[in-house]
# Entry
Amino acid sequence: MRKTPEFEDCFAELISLPSVSCVDPAHDQSNRAVIDALANWFEALGFDCEIMPLSADPEKCNLIARRGDIDDNSGLILSGHTDTVPYDAKGWDTDPFKLTKLNGNYYGLGTADMKSFFPIILETLERLSDVKFDKPVTIVATADEESTMSGARAIQQANKPLGRYCIIGEPTDLIPRHSHKGIIIETINIQGRSGHSSDPTLGNSALEGMNDVMNALRAWRTELQAEHHNDDFKIPVPTLNLGRIQGGDSANRICASCELSMDLRMLPGMEITYLREKMHRVVKDTLAGSGLKVEFNEQFHGVPPMQTAFDSELVKMSEKFTQMNSNSVAFGTEGPFFNDMGLETVILGPGDIDVAHQPNEYLQIERIEPMINILSKMLNHFCEGK
Ligand SMILES: [Zn+2]
# Structure
């Protein structure tokens, strides 16, 4: 006898519950309804559910659901985020909040990234209902992965034992991934003084100061790329992109203010705090003596790089059960926060990252059975199912 609704009903319900997270408050929503639905279903399957509101915003919650005792720090964690990115309704051919089965796909906001992972877990556990596990099974459902990762940060700060091995079901085309780069996004704002362009002594050009800063940042990038290399990655060096610049208003006015946004993607082993301080030093040293003022704004604290050891039992079993070689993934995940707690994490899920964060996001239906299969084998292996 099933204890939870059918796969498609669970999936449809999660897709129907809006849970957009966004650094822009105009688009940001609570994820509570998704968390409550998950807590009800996992409770029905015998899990103890802890709903964890985030201190900065209690409308946002994580769920930690556990079956079995955690005392020896073993067992398997299956983790995913409950939020989605904002959507552009005009771009969609179907209702983004209505799970729509069409052409061998399930369409809907969050189908690939990554609400589908939860009904897949539920379906796997339903099918394994006769199996007795000797080790704990833990489900983690987080808030705000798409915006600030504050859900994963809260779990890391609480630092309660979760288990030993963790699978995050982000979209990876059913290919295991054990590493990714980290990222910092930063805005640099230079303030000078405006004046008539005919007399340079009347002002102080923020734009010319920014030009010097950009050259210094590019020289620093060359240094970083000479010092750091990792063949695990398609682009085997750290990258620094000068992505947006805005400054000045008129050809005949000295530019008083200039703003640059950049990102820095670092390799495993490179540290966010050190890199941010070093970047600030590069900028300040460049502007020293110029009379220009500089301010830095971080969009969020950054996502650390992740590298789970290639010889981890989890990586080995992921390769065995998927029959694919593990490699790196091009986007940031919550994995490094879990690894920082002493866990070993692999990113492995059924969706396709190329259709995520887009109108008409979908999950291929033919990916679902293989993912259930992989999770069954993982649970049997790491939780010693009998
Ligand atoms: Zn995601």
Remarks:
- The chain has a mean pLDDT of 96.
- Residues 81, 113-114, 145, 170 surround zinc ion (CB under 6 Å).
